[in-house]
Amino acid sequence: MVDPSIVSGVQNYLRQLSKHGLVISFGVIFGSYALGKASRWSDINGGTQV
């Protein structure tokens, strides 16, 4: 399960992209955050459909 604060941050990022004219159909979080194995050096991996 992805930490709700990460989901919220990604949703905010996608909203900001939409405000700048990039229409996003959906977003996906993958990698260590999605697996619940993130460390202090982990980044947030994601993909979008435009």
Describe, in plain words, how this protein is organized in 3D.
The protein is elongated. It has one domain (4-49). The chain is α+β, with helices and mostly antiparallel strands. The longest helix is centred in the first third of the chain and has 16 residues, at 4-19. The termini are far apart. It has a two-stranded antiparallel sheet. It is built from 2 helices and 2 strands, in the order αβαβ. It has helices at residues 4-19, 32-35, and strands spanning 26-30, 45-49.
Keywords:
50 residues, two-stranded antiparallel sheet, 2 helices, 2 strands, elongated
Helix content: 40-55%
Tell me the β content: 15-25%
Q: Name the strands of the widest sheet in spatial order.
A: 1-2
| Global Rg | 11 Å
Low-confidence stretches: none
Number of helices: 2
- Main sheet characteristics: 2 strands, antiparallel
Shape: elongated
Could you tell me how far the N terminus lies from the C terminus, measured between alpha carbons in angstroms?
25 Å
Number of strands: 2
Mean pLDDT: 87
SSE succession: HEHE
Q: Please state the structural category.
A: alpha+beta
Count of all domains: 1
